[in-house]
Amino acid sequence: MENEIFKALADPSRRTLLDLLHASDGRTLNDLCAPLQMSRFGVMKHLNLLEEAGLITTRKVGREKLHYLNAVPIRQIYDRWVSKYAEPWAIELTSIKNELERETNMENKPRHVHRIAIKATPEQVWQALTDPAKTSKFWFNCSIRSIWEIGSPFELWNQEGKKQAEGIILAMDPPHKLVMSWNLLSHPNTAGESASRITWEIDTHAELHGVTLVTVVHDEFEQALNTAKVLENGLPIILSGMKTFLETGTTLAGS
């Protein structure tokens, strides 16, 4: 997969498409064709290669097919080739996206979409999400607590005994879907914001045996923009850490 990622990044037109999605996520093919001096077919070909490399994801909303920058593979490249040569504090300074620029007039449009393939079963992924002993291995050393019923609360606690986040279980279909409201308490500029929403979609890979696709959608954060900025960078780290933990039993440095 790394070879596919580096090959996809080698083309300047594909890097331009990633830059366009960096600036404004969830764009249609027509939106992406406008800034590029190439045919619609050419742009589609580049988008397909980016999707095959996992660098973008797509979702259907009505009749539109929307394209999203998927920061998880970029985060994995960073973890593999950069972070082990850098000082630990560099992780805190690295940002996949520097600003939140998400102006849209499309209703019910998913705002942040991240996806990763994990060599594990959906049941193993579900357990990793809901078992406090396992979340502490990849969720910034935090353990999740809940009775896991629709309408019940959940809380995320760090090792120092401080609550970092809380919310309500809005919907669940084990081991395939989990929807939760999200209040981030660990940052001064997020603690007073309204709740946003996180949706976990866990699906067996259609072609690869023993592989599960995990997609995380963060939306409904119009009144929680500071939370959105934190999760935009944090969710790729969590997903990368989950993959490392489930596939190797080890943890990412700093996770």
TrEMBL record:
PROSITE patterns according to UniProt: HTH_ARSR_2 (PS50987)
Any Pfam family: AHSA1
Domain of life: Bacteria
InterPro entries per the UniProt record, alphabetical: ArsR-like_HTH, ASHA1/2-like_C, HTH_ArsR_DNA-bd_dom, START-like_dom_sf, WH-like_DNA-bd_sf, WH_DNA-bd_sf
SMART domains, per database record: HTH_ARSR
Domain HTH arsR-type span(s) in chain numbering: 1-89
Keyword vocabulary terms for this entry: DNA-binding
Secretion signal span: none
Similarity remark: Belongs to the AHA1 family.
Identification of the protein by name: Metalloregulator ArsR/SmtB family transcription factor
Biological source species: Paenibacillus solisilvae
Organism ancestry: Bacteria, Bacillati, Bacillota, Bacilli, Bacillales
